[in-house]
Amino acid sequence: MLSLKNISLTQFKNYTHTAYAFQQRIVGITGRNGSGKTNLLDAIYYLCFTKSYFSSNEGQNTQYHTNGFRLEGVLERNSQLHRIICTVKDGKKEISLDDESYDRFSRHIGQFPAVMIAPDDAEIILGGSEERRKWLDALLSQLYPSYLEHLITYNKVLQQRNSLLKTIATQGRSQDALLDIFDEQLAQHGAPVFEMRQAFLPAFIRQVQQLYDYLAGRHEVVNIQYQCHLLEQPLDKLLAANRHKDMLLQRTSSGIHRDDLVFLLDDHAMKASASQGQRKSFLFALKLAQYEVIKLHKQFPPLLLLDDVFEKLDQERVTRLIQLVSSPEYGQVFITDTHARRLLDAFEGKEEFQLINNE
């Protein structure tokens, strides 16, 4: 079991200094728009991922007219208490677990898993390929530390190769020997990422289908199609074949950084053909399947963070969602809404429910 016992926020977004204690498995957070409900969920997410769900710019996570922020939380994992402290000051970030500072933040990922469902998640379906890769990477990084290490190294080498391609274009000098080294490194670290993505999806989509049918209240065939250059040939051969093209473009045109996922509904691209209700059902099924996979892999349920779901789903889907997350198989759930009465009605009779008024 994983649960957050308490959290304190100092100069984080709209919080000057506030602390919360969580006594129950299901925590409702209510308050008007702008009161900081979403920011509280983001602070919880930050403790688990060492970064914000919504912003990669730490300046946007820092309260106005201050030079940093501090988050501290106590989490219980398998009956053991752990303290996480995240501080950002004057642009410098530090993360510690039980008073031991991390030399690499990536070592924290997956230790305290969490799944966030937020309104902006629609971009996973409607946005560009980067949004879908980011979602898949966040999921697989929590499951497999080696995946995250390969991905980090791949992206560093990719930056170096792209920088070299720009230098070659500017200076007009051949750098084949250095390009050979970068190509070898990209192939070395790209192949495991490709293999893990490819191996993961077939079983995962079956879980998404089950949850989609449940949330939608009817059966429609959903699927995820994996698009990757490495399905055609190994990365070292692709890089060699496209080297001249890459020199002209001044960037690396093939590799796992160009992967995409096509979400299908009855064999049609969901992005173009699905209704808003169908997309919402699929998105929630996608995230809840992510939750189930992490729970199975870790042997305990991750934290589930639900932001503003009452405003985004119709009553039927909300009812099914609440029934699902209220079941004993789920772990600690945090859910926000602007209406306290709606939260109280949704979880009426549930002894494990706690309401926090964030006015």
Molecular structure report:
The protein has 13 helices and 14 strands. It is of the alpha/beta class and about 350 residues long. It has two domains: about 1-115 and about 300-359, Rossmann fold; about 125-300, Glutathione S-transferase Yfyf (Class Pi), Chain A, domain 2 (Up-down Bundle), CATH 1.20.1050.90. The strands form three sheets. A six-stranded antiparallel sheet has the order 2-1-4-5-6-7. Strands 8-12-13-3-14 form a five-stranded parallel sheet, with helices on both faces. α4 crosses α5 (about 145-170) and α6 (about 175-215) crosses α7 (about 235-240). The protein is globular, with a radius of gyration of 22 Å.
